[in-house]
Amino acid sequence: MSLNTFGHLFRITTWGESHGPAIGATVDGCPPGVTLEAAMLQQWLDRRKPGTSKFTTQRREADAVEILSGVYEGQTTGTPIQMMIRNTDQRSKDYGEIAEKFRPGHADITYHLKYGIRDPRGGGRSSARETASRVAAGGVAREVLKTLAPGLSITGYMVQMGPHAINRARFDWDQIDRNPFWTPDAAAADLWAQYLDDLRKSGSSVGAVVEVVVRGAPAGLGAPVYGKLDTDLAAAMMSINAVKGVEIGEGMAAAALTGEANADEIRMGPNGPEYSSNHAGGILGGISTGQDIVVRFAVKPTSSILTPRKTVTKSGENTEIVTKGRHDPCVGIRAVPVGEAMAACVILDHLLLHRAQVGDGPRGVIG
Amino acid sequence: MSLNTFGHLFRITTWGESHGPAIGATVDGCPPGVTLEAAMLQQWLDRRKPGTSKFTTQRREADAVEILSGVYEGQTTGTPIQMMIRNTDQRSKDYGEIAEKFRPGHADITYHLKYGIRDPRGGGRSSARETASRVAAGGVAREVLKTLAPGLSITGYMVQMGPHAINRARFDWDQIDRNPFWTPDAAAADLWAQYLDDLRKSGSSVGAVVEVVVRGAPAGLGAPVYGKLDTDLAAAMMSINAVKGVEIGEGMAAAALTGEANADEIRMGPNGPEYSSNHAGGILGGISTGQDIVVRFAVKPTSSILTPRKTVTKSGENTEIVTKGRHDPCVGIRAVPVGEAMAACVILDHLLLHRAQVGDGPRGVIG
Amino acid sequence: MSLNTFGHLFRITTWGESHGPAIGATVDGCPPGVTLEAAMLQQWLDRRKPGTSKFTTQRREADAVEILSGVYEGQTTGTPIQMMIRNTDQRSKDYGEIAEKFRPGHADITYHLKYGIRDPRGGGRSSARETASRVAAGGVAREVLKTLAPGLSITGYMVQMGPHAINRARFDWDQIDRNPFWTPDAAAADLWAQYLDDLRKSGSSVGAVVEVVVRGAPAGLGAPVYGKLDTDLAAAMMSINAVKGVEIGEGMAAAALTGEANADEIRMGPNGPEYSSNHAGGILGGISTGQDIVVRFAVKPTSSILTPRKTVTKSGENTEIVTKGRHDPCVGIRAVPVGEAMAACVILDHLLLHRAQVGDGPRGVIG
Amino acid sequence: MSLNTFGHLFRITTWGESHGPAIGATVDGCPPGVTLEAAMLQQWLDRRKPGTSKFTTQRREADAVEILSGVYEGQTTGTPIQMMIRNTDQRSKDYGEIAEKFRPGHADITYHLKYGIRDPRGGGRSSARETASRVAAGGVAREVLKTLAPGLSITGYMVQMGPHAINRARFDWDQIDRNPFWTPDAAAADLWAQYLDDLRKSGSSVGAVVEVVVRGAPAGLGAPVYGKLDTDLAAAMMSINAVKGVEIGEGMAAAALTGEANADEIRMGPNGPEYSSNHAGGILGGISTGQDIVVRFAVKPTSSILTPRKTVTKSGENTEIVTKGRHDPCVGIRAVPVGEAMAACVILDHLLLHRAQVGDGPRGVIG
Prior knowledge:
homotetramer, 367 residues, alpha+beta, five-stranded antiparallel beta sheet, 18 strands, 27% helix
């Protein structure tokens, strides 16, 4: 993994700034012969696209993806796939203030301290806009997964907004696509709508927790000791803007469990081993068990808020800053398709790694 | 990062199984001219060593590290440093049962499903014994950090055992070395001692939360977008055996905060910007701010317990398993020096990455 | 190094096919604060551009490079630099024949055998057009080198065309820019002009040898044992289309020398050690000595010729093929700026690697 | 590829100095379930071992390899394989002179200039002794290749010693194992024996050319544009001590050919395409054709000779040096098994890469 590249064999390199001419992703290592058209990627980009409800930023971006290379007559050729998304809504607003003042909780100050230069327009490289490139790359991964792991599905959803968590007893997969928060708990969606609307009107923001589940993944993905599946999932999610925590299965709650409570007991089923529970989140020793792979991450609240915050200027003067403009009151909403995309990239990457080292067939059998 | 290697420029590759002839770590990319002797590494290994209190496994291992290469007349030469730790306590016990039955919650089953073969003796490659190699490598990183970042310190400690968290109001750095749990809360240490002793006697086990703090790290470490400092810290910690969750700063709790509450406000101090709080855990946009870097991880309970658990055999029969033998009732204790070691490797790696791209001097100044 | 990426820290990823919408290069790891504009890159692209003399392909491409990211107000920001070159001269010719028949000596057949699919238009990904992306990336490297190693220069030139080598006694640096072959031997240029014109008219092609010299590089670049400077130079040059051999210093001729003849004797000069000769090509043990770094590579003749050659079709029938169209009679000419570009990337990459591991200052001194 | 690691998926990391306690290689990414014992590796190490004839250094090293990890009950487990070779013949000689004076043509001076410190005993890390680790790693690769590509063979041999090349008309595969030079030309062996004996007695040394041929490799190994098979072979060979040039197929001689002469014409044979010649050395566009893969490299003469050479001391004084002691008059002889080992590693690595991206089966078919 280098600075702007993610993955071992299915490698994505993203590039571009929020208000430059374009952003994009280069995918290297894609298997050949996979049907791929821009429209297949667009569906995922449209889920992440700003301005789809009053709960996301009102910036208007078509987020139309163009495939510039690596596809011939509708099929991947095994060569690099370049995907470009032009930036269309670069309002000619004055960035003078945020070019001079650092927003507390934002990457402005660290980019400045590291590089001595930064593109302040719309957050530049640190803008959440970068995640559109991830979604495009994840769309490619999904198409490959269709051919390599036909029964596999990847679904993300919100399980907490601010202090309000969902009720797992109300979990309904079918609800996820029916509310603007991608949540499986319809009652939570109602509550959050009101809560977030109030927050939005007050110019505030709030954090969230997103969960991504991979169903139908084969056992055996991952590897000791640093190339673990959970290591790469953790890196993938933590690399998303604003993420501050990552959990696999029980996550932080595993600390409170005893060995007895944490053990996922095993019994033979008709198609191999079955488990009484899934505290492990589908991963043991860094390798998938064949159960659902469950990863969860927390997104902090957007730092761009209307309430004045104390800060300093580049020239070292104490001042205050208020961030006007179009911002997400809960950036966690749009993080859902991003988390799915990163999971798709990691799973595909590990499928390829596994195929490289061990081959296509099942290796160890039980029974 | 490949399967058994961690790091970009300061790269550690660990090797070896619990009951093979030896385990070890190869460090590549170490700066030359750094004073290094085995004794400097041994002090850290001694902290992780089993059998130092009744709260850790009674396996007796000297864990004596030998430096086989890369050091000449007490100084690193810039070439690979090979560190070997011989396995001395490989009891000639019968591993027949765990060779045939899979321990629930253990990597036995996934190694088998992936590779079709595994070394069952003492957990083989998936044994926590591997972490001794990490501690040795972390010891090298610490010696280099002494020369490259003289004021920097890295300290790990336990903040939760089972359901019992420390009281932050009682946090005392000086307590950390004074109890067998490396905890800054003396009262928690007393409580945990009783709690864990009971648990140990009943043959059970429990999870824990470990926090590692890096003080005195310069601003500017890390890089967008995948080479973030927090990405690498998350990967480093999640790669440790039994870790199920990783947090930076507020971590999962960031989800519940509003933008106002989460903002670390900035004011000019005598030596540059100062912050009113550290919700960010010292990292913004993947780059260090100069504040304390705070990373936290949850360790699940050891899967080896005396209570019978349902499982299956390699040949597919339902059965039960009880894991006798010497095991850690709370493996989180020994994870403290391991977390420190991984943090040391990540910080040094990013210091080298930063020096490569931006040079030695400060780049962006404020004021 | 992954499939389409080159470099350790200064990493270039190229993408695009000859007749797709565009080609380009993503540069990651570029130091910040370096002045960069498209015009600075264009000068190098113009040297490689087809159609500048009758000795190169008559394909007309503006090869205009656009910088899409990583530069703000004329300075690099340290984030990925995306450079795109649109393909403008994609003649709507019939590619039916080369889509069905494999050109002997061309990558058509191996792409087909590997991937089962290939973009046949203009050679697709295997087209020499890919090298324009390298030249753009090399242009970025050159601008960075201006700031990190001010006295350093990189110059490529042809030393052999077909069977006709230059006479080293006539070597004149000033001639290199004065003939269409970038050769330092004016007499050779005259000879080659006649030779190549005849060859071109007959529809044939011929190979060449290109030499690249790096003057003013500091001692200490490179590293044992696999990250050697010569290893990376060899990889860089061998990765260029049509290259079949790479030499450092004496190269293959070193085999014929005795130890006495090969020794570059050392004497103290006013500014440090000086050498009586440079058989080593400026590299000992994989590390630069401070002398001129000399690398040389052979380019095979273009496989696209007018003389019919025996081949087979995709469906397995024996047939013949004649490659009409616009092709370089001696592709070695346009390989000169490509070799320079790759050398620039390697040298910069190793400057950054050295700075990472050892720091900015001189490490070992003599005297 | 990092400093001391080679390979993408089958990764070897070598460590150790000539006169330290041991040297070795860590192999990561090895497929599981491959039969492996130390004796299988020892046979290759014995070919490289010093002191087997009067034509190699008289240093006596058993070069006995121990497998410390990654193998269980005689089978690879898929985890890192650590191979250690103890150094047994570290004569307690005085290294004072070469610690102070730099041998012309040797890495002494560049290690000093880069790192400011070096292990001078026996050349330290720059000693040809490091290549024993490569041979061990190559031995592992060979065992894996037996299972993944059963018909594949890798054979190295000398084709030139000093100015004396073999006569290709006398090429006889069966001769290679019958003379101390691993040459297929028995008459050359006789000539070289006399030539080298004279050279050895006079305390001189000479270079050589080694060729390695891979027979039976499948088509489709390699990848555009930087992960080419020839790129990696070039890097692999150039990374060997003393190598100054690498060629694929026609190599440097390709420059002198016309397109007609260079074309390997294609005809359908009973099992697919056949070629009229192999100028390409089995690689087109970076991907194997299925023909013999032919790589050749030149080794310079050992710099350790009895004739005094001018040099300088660490303190900057002009002086002379004579290198006494045990040295190879033609280090190219022992480079033969090293070249084979590196070829084995590269071929296996690309088999795994291909399996990852494209799968096990043939992809593109002809006919």
